[in-house]
Amino acid sequence: VIPADLNDEFVTTYTKGDFSDVDDFRQEIGFQLQERWDQESRKSMEMQIVETLVEMHPDVPVPESAVTELLSSMVEDVLKRNANVKLGDDEKKQISDSLRPVAERNIRWEIIRNAVIEKEKLEIEDHDLDALIRPEDKSESEVKAMKSKLRSNVGLMNQLLAKKAMDFILDFAITE
Fold this sequence. Notes:
Blueprint: H1 8-14, H2 22-56, H3 64-81, H4 89-119, H5 126-133, H6 140-151, H7 154-172
C-alpha cells in the first residue's frame, strides 16, 4: 500500500470538496482536536467537582428507596449488556454489591446538585433554549411553539438544569 500524497487534490477528494487547500484542512483538524481536548478537559473537571462535592458532604442522607431503584436499573443494564453470559444469583448479587457505592454516590450528587439549583434559584430561561432551536431561522410563533414543546419535555429540562448547575459550579472552580 502506497499512501497518497498530501496535496490540494487529495484534500479536495478526501473532504468531498469541503476543503481544497492543505493548510485550511490542517487548520480545521487543529480546531477539531482542540474542541475534543476542551470537551475531555471539561468532562474531567466535572468528574473531579462531583467527586469533591460528594466527599465534602458525606452527611447528606441518601434515601434507600432511591438507591434501590437506581441500583436495580444499573444491574439490569449490566445484565442486558451481557445477555449472552449466564449469571447465577451469587454473581448478580456481587454485581449489585459492587455497584451500590456508585448508586449511592450518584444519588448523593443529585441531592447536592438539586440543593445548589434550589439555593441559587437556577431556572431554564428562554436564552437557554435558543441554542437548541436557532430562533434566527424561524418565525416568532414557531419559536414560541418550539420552546413550549421543549419545556414540556421533563427529561430535557432536567438535563439543561443539571448543565446549568454544573456551569454555575464551574464558575467558582479554581483550575490548574
